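Question (not urgent): is this output format expected?
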Amino acid sequence: MITTIALDLDNTLLTSEKTISPRTERVLKQLHTAGKRIVLCTGRPIKAIQPLLKQLALTQPTDYSITFNGGLVQQNTTAAILARTSLTKADLAPLYAFAKTFGFPLDVIDLTQVYSLIELGKSPYEDFLQGLMPFTDLTFATLPADDLFGKVVSASDQVPAIQANLPADVAANFHVVPSRRNLLEFLPNHTDKASGLTQLLTHFNEQAANLMAFGDEENDLGMLKLAKVGVAMDNAIPAVKAVATATTLSNDDDGVAVFLENYFS
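Got this back:
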């Protein structure tokens, strides 16, 4: 029986206008009230998705989100950490060296803020988050050595080139995955939405057989493979459609709501 519904955000749950449609909001609230666990799965920190959690009324003690693309499993209202994988400044050294040589920006994210490594150039990531987290411009040398970081992102048009030229020490020590066409994420090794969901399901004594997941992009592949029911949006990349057990309409055509209405009718 499906007890947990995992949802990617951009181009899956959210429309192109970055909103949840009224139909999708209604269906998810109905399923949540009926006892289904609705889990938002995102690369963003939990602070940045609070408006969505409140809109969907995902505020019960048993409501959790998967943030940092699986690096954090957090309770929605308290942000208490159920599971965490992190990066240290020492871990980031080979990535910084690569970015400096290849010429692309990096933004380093901890639980409360984003550090822009300003000597690599200011990226558009701050504009993308639209004030949902504070940003600090600093150099790698002054990045706090005692902090733990959830991930590093590069907001750049160079994403394909960066992926194609990863040096061995970066490829071996990070899970590198695009979350949007122009946003590349560097996560702790072996960390993805599937790993975060596995930890959450274990917490509730459940298994992948209880999971339904929706996604559209490369960083959703793991959780769609894991889920008993893995649903690709019509606007998903071909690799996502190839691993899905089902497809639905696009994010702008209420694809999530339509599939859920049909499945649980």
